[in-house]
Specification:
alpha/beta; Metallo-beta-lactamase, Chain A; Oxidized Rhodanese, domain 1; 2 domains; six-stranded mixed beta sheet
Length: 355
């Protein structure tokens, strides 16, 4: 079976292409909105046909591209049956198999990170895709979406640690530069949930994490309950966008493309930058940062504003300055014009569109 690992730098999310080498039938596990062109380019270059998109759970840190991929390629979408996303083509129960040509994946119910979390093991048990249930020397949090530390512990010990020790573990995320591990390694060395860690100690550890909410929680979960479909831009208000390091609300390029004309785009660079080699994002207004607060005095304080610069620093400052003036619907574009240009370079020309 062919396996290819792909990565989203913003959320440290892994997406996987899993394919039957003979039939060239392929599935995508946990694809991220904004990378659909990249993902399909790899599938096409390898001469494969995308037949399924599979989700391990309803994600809280990114929006899935399942809906876009289904619309553009005709593939089908499979999701865990517990708390299933709307409009899936198939819901999977524990023990169900999903064919990939002559091969298949078997669904393992592994609740704990969320109530509906599921892992997928290859038919020869040589690899398992664990989502946020089991990660490299770690595991997913258990403090929202029906999560349970007790359930996670039992899922890992009864479902994943009973697989062959040589089975490769492909996690949903990694934040330290590692790519994969094995069941045997995690049974020995996972500091949170190794075989020698008892359930009571694990539950105590998880209760003491005190983690901040995921940055895109208020945006990602509602969208992912619809397989990533953004059908009503106003259901994604700027007030729900996460706050970055300087304290300003930040929105990413995917969000900007999803809301379209519902938000007024203000570029706060100087005119030579605006017309320079980086260019500018379509439908933006040039208001240099030094003049922003003066010009904005005549604007409605409830207007939806997205502030843009080269890479996101000046736009953060501009967004904060407008908030201090009483603007209630203002955010900064994360990564700025450079991030948008990277999207164009990757082939994304319009929301959900192909080059």
């Amino acid at each position: 079976m062919f396996i290819r690992q792909l990565f989203d730098t913003e959320t440290s999310t892994y997406t996987y292409i899993v394919a039957d080498r003979v039939s060239k039938s392929a599935v995508l596990i946990d694809p991220v909105l904004g990378h659909e062109v990249r993902d399909m380019r790899v599938v096409d270059e390898l001469g494969m046909t995308l037949t399924w998109v599979i989700e391990t759970h309803i994600h809280a840190d990114h929006i899935t591209s399942a809906s876009v991929l289904r619309e553009r390629t005709g593939c089908k979408v499979a999701v865990p049956a517990v708390n299933a996303a709307e409009n899936a083509d198939r819901t999977l129960q524990h023990g169900d198999t999903l064919a990939i040509g002559s091969r298949h994946l078997t669904a393992l119910a592994t609740p704990g990170h969320t109530e509906g979390s599921m892992s997928y093991v290859t038919d020869d048990q040589s690899a398992v895709f664990t989502g946020d249930t089991l990660m490299i020397r770690s595991c997913g949090r258990t403090d929202f979406q029906g999560g349970s530390a007790e359930s996670l512990y039992r899922s890992v010990h009864s479902q994943l640690f009973t697989l062959p020790s040589t089975c490769t573990v492909y996690p949903g995320h990694d934040y330290t530069g590692q790519t994969a591990t094995s069941v045997g390694e995690e049974m020995l060395y996972n500091h949170r949930i190794a075989e020698h860690v008892d359930e009571a100690n694990f539950v105590e550890t998880m209760a003491g994490l005190n983690l901040s909410p995921p940055r895109q929680l208020d945006i990602a979960v509602p969208a992912n309950k619809r397989l990533g479909a953004i059908t009503e831009p106003l259901t994604h208000p700027i007030t729900a966008v996460h706050r970055g390091g300087l304290g300003a609300r930040q929105a990413n390029v995917q969000w900007m493309l999803g809301v379209g004309q519902e938000v007024r785009r203000i570029d706060v660079r100087e005119i030579d930058e605006y017309n320079g080699h980086l260019g500018h994002i379509p439908d933006t207004e040039l208001v240099p940062l030094a003049t922003l607060t003066t010009v904005a005095k005549s604007w409605r304080r409830d207007e939806r504003l997205l502030i843009i610069c080269r890479s996101g620093v000046r736009s953060d400052r501009g967004a904060l300055a407008l908030e201090e003036m009483g603007f209630s619907q203002v955010a900064s574009l994360q990564g700025g014009t450079k991030a948008f240009n990277q999207h164009v370079a990757d082939g994304l020309q319009s929301p959900g569109g192909w080059e």
